[in-house]
Amino acid sequence: MRTVSSTEPKPQRADAVRNRERIVEAARELFAECGQATQMDDVARRAQVGVGTVYRHFPTKSALQGELMAAKFRHHAEVARRWTSEPDGWTAFEGFLRETFAAMATDASLRQRVTWSEDADALALAEPERQALSVVVGEIIERAQDQGRMTPAFTVADMPAFMCAAGAVITAQQASPVVLGDRFLELLIDGLRVCPDGA
Amino acid sequence: MRTVSSTEPKPQRADAVRNRERIVEAARELFAECGQATQMDDVARRAQVGVGTVYRHFPTKSALQGELMAAKFRHHAEVARRWTSEPDGWTAFEGFLRETFAAMATDASLRQRVTWSEDADALALAEPERQALSVVVGEIIERAQDQGRMTPAFTVADMPAFMCAAGAVITAQQASPVVLGDRFLELLIDGLRVCPDGA
DNA sequence: GGGGAAATGGAGAGGGGATTCCGGTTGCGC
DNA sequence: GCGCAACCGGAATCCCCTCTCCATTTCCCC
Questions:
Q1: Which residues interact with strand D by a CB < 7 Å criterion?
Q2: Closest residue to C5 measured CA to C1′
Q3: How much helix, strand and coil, in percent to the nearest 5, is found in chain B?
Q4: Is residue A2 scored above 50 in pLDDT?
Q5: What is the rounded distance in angstroms from the CA atom of residue A70 to the CA atom of residue A132?
Q6: Taking the model in full, what pTM does it have?
Q7: Chain centroid to CA B66
Q8: CA/C1' separation A82–C6 (Å)
Q9: B72-127: per-residue pLDDT in tens?
Q10: Rounded to an integer, what distance in angstroms lies between the CA atom of residue A171 and that of residue B161?
């Protein structure tokens, strides 16, 4: 009897792997463009694949969206994790935020508000990744607060609102360049910082 | 020949007027609760009216949504107009914002982001009201800037992003009361103010 | 290079929801 | 009180989209 660990990823055929990647990429683009209005047929077409193939990889539209959300959380978590080694908590937090904002400016798919309404099933599927992100960022926040550099009123639970607010501003900037711009983001960041001379 | 001005509102029957109001009110509630997922049948049921009646008053779901958006713009514009008589531009602007935020906290239907994506047709139908709001608020903003009390970088075009950011924060507050809270809104407001001692 | 499991593709079933249609009802001017 | 337009209700229609099914094609191991 061969060793078959229950977590063995059972290797996929080369074409299946390739197609899955194509599908995810196509979906990312389309959801960024059309949001909820994106259709499975469109995804299939852009991925140059049949609808059946899309459904072989993702049993449900929600599953596909869930994967996209999970990917987004993974991405943010990775950025945060990279800043974790910075000893100063506030520097780490600020670095994470700025890097994330920059990424959002570049990639529309990162901008979509994600945590309220939309698709409950998709969100549920991405829950593990959301948790993981929460843990990493939460740790940075607590460190910054312990070091007295961040207002203690802020918690990880505030992050979604924070990100959504930032996303709104960034989206607006894309629409009309003449906009207040980055100053808004600076304001948001400043609001959390605790200066040496008091809050 | 009776005088029939082309803009004459042609009087409606009493029951028609009553039903129309009921429909709008029901729709406002449902869209606040379910957002885009709201169905015409639900609206009809909550208004205690047949679907046909809903369609008699609003030929399209978009038309109904458009009316709701128009109402929202009208509401905001009225608040702004009330502050127009205040001679100090910044005071007027701040008053308008605070009053509007307070209203958003109370009424979920005011909170929904409205200016991007969603339903282009509905937005188009509410365009006149949007314009009107824009004019009133724009005037206040310019006054505040002429008096040197507001950063000149801000324009009416920034308002949607601003409101959307505020909406995100307020929504988050509703979800978990332990949140950073109003300080966020203060930050946003502070960011536009120009203090006597420089920007 | 042959066999069979793994994948593919896309027509169409199925379901949900917006919109229509029209026989019946109601307000209102006379 | 009558008559008739305006209005109402809600079953039925129609369309759009997700998801299924299976004949056919493609990889991969021997």
A1: A 11, 13-15, 38-41, 51-52, 55, 59-62; B 12-13, 15-16, 19, 48-53, 55-57
A2: A13
A3: 70, 0, 30
A4: no
A5: 10
A6: 0.86
A7: 11
A8: 39
A9: 999 999 999 999 999 999 999 999 999 999 999 998 888 876 655 578 899 999 99
A10: 8
